[in-house]
UniProtKB/TrEMBL annotation:
<dbReference type="Pfam" id="PF13509">
    <property type="entry name" value="S1_2"/>
</dbReference>
<comment type="similarity">
    <text>Belongs to the CvfB family.</text>
</comment>
<dbReference type="InterPro" id="IPR039566">
    <property type="entry name" value="CvfB_S1_st"/>
</dbReference>
<dbReference type="InterPro" id="IPR014464">
    <property type="entry name" value="CvfB_fam"/>
</dbReference>
<dbReference type="InterPro" id="IPR036388">
    <property type="entry name" value="WH-like_DNA-bd_sf"/>
</dbReference>
<feature type="domain" description="Conserved virulence factor B-like winged helix">
    <location>
        <begin position="219"/>
        <end position="271"/>
    </location>
</feature>
<dbReference type="Pfam" id="PF17783">
    <property type="entry name" value="WHD_CvfB"/>
</dbReference>
<feature type="domain" description="Conserved virulence factor B first S1">
    <location>
        <begin position="4"/>
        <end position="62"/>
    </location>
</feature>
<dbReference type="InterPro" id="IPR040764">
    <property type="entry name" value="CvfB_WH"/>
</dbReference>
<dbReference type="InterPro" id="IPR012340">
    <property type="entry name" value="NA-bd_OB-fold"/>
</dbReference>
<protein>
    <submittedName>
        <fullName>GntR family transcriptional regulator</fullName>
    </submittedName>
</protein>
Length: 275
């Protein structure tokens, strides 16, 4: 049985306090009554998360924690007392963040980027906000162009910090950051650069060539409907945005694709659909 992770265990027996689950090494653990369902039977396999309860007993739950060992999440501090800070991590027992694991003083009801750690000596889980040394420097050039899950972090002068694939520290520059995304959100982004310091540059959304295709399709639809549009690559950005709802850079990329495919004719003061 592995503390701090999901385990597939078999129901051994039912008792007044819950069901006891076991593995193939004759270990067992209690799944309390509150997590049982009417269709559970002896012999069934159940996927559970294991952690220690308020009395330091190993216990199983079918609830899902917001973070697992080696991962990061923005957690809300529910209480700060003599022992440390206690964060809501999605389970009944709050996650303790000892004072020595706090990079700054933590305040109740505020959210902090937190990593979950496991102490083998005590078989206990704990949180830490001292996360800067926990990121893996990225050196894998094969990741460039890949779409990976990201966690949105704090804003800087250049852009927004992100955590890529729960491993790497990255940056989404302001020009590539959708306005609807906020600190703590999960989304996907694609890697387009790996820096010498091991950090990665990320864009939200589809890779460049796919975005060009999408915008070319959008421009093609407009041209099919109207026959022509009275803007060109010399038009002002404001005029382009007003007419086709694109930035001038995106518009020129879309025009270039349609022209290369011989679907449009470029005139001095307009673009005409000929496809």
């Amino acid at each position: 049985m592995k503390t701090g992770d999901y385990n597939n265990l078999q129901i051994l027996r039912f008792t007044s306090v819950g069901a006891y689950l076991g593995d193939d090494q004759d270990n067992d653990v209690l799944l309390p009554n509150k997590y049982l369902t009417d269709d559970m039977q002896v012999g069934d396999e159940v996927k559970v998360f294991l952690y220690r309860d308020s009395e330091d007993r190993l216990v199983a739950t079918t609830e899902h924690p917001l973070v697992k060992p080696g991962e990061f999440a923005f957690l809300r501090i529910k209480e700060v007392n003599f022992y440390g800070a206690f964060a809501d991590w999605g389970l009944e027992k709050d996650l303790m963040i000892p004072f020595k694991e706090q990079h700054i003083t933590l305040n109740e009801n505020a959210y902090y980027l937190t990593a979950l750690k496991y102490d083998e000596a005590t078989d206990r889980l704990y949180g830490t906000t001292k996360v800067n040394k926990l990121f893996t420097p990225c050196s894998d050039e094969s990741l460039i162009g890949n779409v990976l899950p990201i966690l949105v972090g704090d804003q800087t002068d250049l852009g927004v910090k992100v955590i890529v694939d729960q491993q790497y520290l990255g940056m989404v520059y302001h020009s590539d950051m959708p306005s609807h995304l906020r600190r703590g959100d999960y989304t996907e982004g694609y890697i387009y650069n790996i820096r010498e310091d091991g950090k990665v540059d990320v864009r939200i959304g589809k890779p460049g060539y796919q975005r060009i295709d999408d915008n070319a399709d959008k421009l093609m639809t407009i041209l099919k409907r109207l026959g022509k549009i009275n803007i060109t690559d010399k038009s002002t950005p404001e005029k382009v945005m007003e007419t086709v709802g694109m930035s001038k850079k995106v518009f020129k990329q879309a025009v270039g694709k349609l022209y290369k495919e011989k679907l449009i004719e470029l005139k001095e003061d307009a673009i005409t659909w000929i496809g």
